[in-house]
Design brief:
two-stranded antiparallel ribbon, mainly alpha, 2 strands, 331 residues, single chain
């Protein structure tokens, strides 16, 4: 006689295993996001791949366990699949993201400080820029004021500079020109508009998300922070070029005693990239060991394997004294 218990529809065991697979998918996705720094495409690929491997092996083991013929061969295939599951699927989920998820969350107080430090470093770009531009303007201002002083003479190049820039050759004209330069090139760090205003808004968003430790948003904020650093440096460097910044030295020629137009102080000036010195994103991907992660991974895989554990196994029994009498029917 050939009998096998069958069930129709979704069983409780199916639901339990599905819950385990969903947990595996979610934890791997978030954990891998910490590793990749918020590269969503890779996070989806890895998390779906790990989950699909576990689901495929689970399905195969259940099928092999319930096979109705060639039971010895199916049993070998079943145990081989179980071995692959233990050797590959479990470590893949552990090191594919889940370990990193718990390592990062164990260090969240420390990692928050790195985010704040990186944001301070980005803000310091504005200080470096303003300090440099402020110094150049002061040097130009001093030279121009001397060049329009009582009895001062200017050479042709300096007179042409006054004409081209529309500067009146007196103290009032020089002061007005310098004020225009300050308003054009000094970045107002009190304003909510412009480059600094955009930075302040982004900084507030990142600080709020990191401060509240939104586990899903953290990788996104790490990526945003790196992009913010590059954007700030690009915009600050563009500011000098776009406004055709020209801060010449004005000096008195020793031989003629005339004031002459010297070199442009900001020639070749650029704020250097600071991305390599930022630590927040790197700290998210920094490896480590978490006992909690190992325990959670084992629990998740026990939940996934529950459907396999309780699945029906086909057995063979002899109805007669010799196997040949009944063919060792499957029951």
């Amino acid at each position: 006689m050939n009998k096998k218990k069958t069930s129709k529809g979704v069983t409780i065991a199916n639901v339990i295993s599905i819950v385990g697979l969903v947990l595996l998918l979610v934890f791997t996705f978030i954990g891998h996001a910490y590793i990749s720094g918020g590269e969503t495409g890779w996070d989806i690929l890895v998390s779906v791949g790990v989950t699909a491997l576990s689901a495929l092996l689970l399905w195969f083991m259940i099928k092999a366990k319930g096979a109705e013929n060639q039971l010895d061969k199916w049993k070998i295939a079943e145990y081989a699949a179980l071995g692959i599951y233990i050797i590959f699927a479990i470590p893949a989920s552990l090191f594919g993201g889940i370990m990193q998820f718990f390592v990062v969350n164990d260090r969240k107080a420390e990692i928050k400080q790195y985010a704040t430090s990186d944001l301070d470093n980005i803000e310091n770009v504005f200080k470096i820029y303003n300090d440099s531009v402020g110094k150049w303007i002061s040097v130009t201002h001093s030279g121009l004021r001397a060049a329009v002083g009582d009895g001062a003479e200017r050479d042709l190049s300096l007179d042409r500079f006054f004409t081209d820039k529309g500067i009146s050759a007196n103290q009032g004209g020089v002061n007005k020109h310098i004020e225009i330069q300050r308003n054009s090139f000094i970045i107002n760090r009190e304003s909510s508009d412009g480059i600094y205003g955009i930075f302040k808004a982004k900084r507030s968003e990142i600080e709020t998300s990191v401060g509240n430790w939104n586990i899903i948003e953290i990788p996104k904020q790490a990526k945003m922070l790196d992009e913010l650093a590059s954007s700030v440096i690009e915009k600050v460097n563009e500011k000098l070029g776009d406004n055709k910044a020209y801060f010449p030295r004005v000096t008195q020629d020793a031989s003629s005693s005339k004031y002459v137009l010297g070199n442009n102080q900001n020639n070749g000036f650029k704020i250097k990239e600071i991305s390599s010195s930022l630590k927040f994103k790197n700290e998210l991907s920094k490896g480590g060991i978490s006992i909690t992660a190992i325990a959670i991974v084992l629990v998740i895989h026990l939940i996934i394997l529950f459907n396999y554990i309780v699945a029906h196994r086909t057995h063979t029994y002899r109805a007669g004294m010799f196997k040949e009498e009944d063919g060792a029917k499957a029951l």
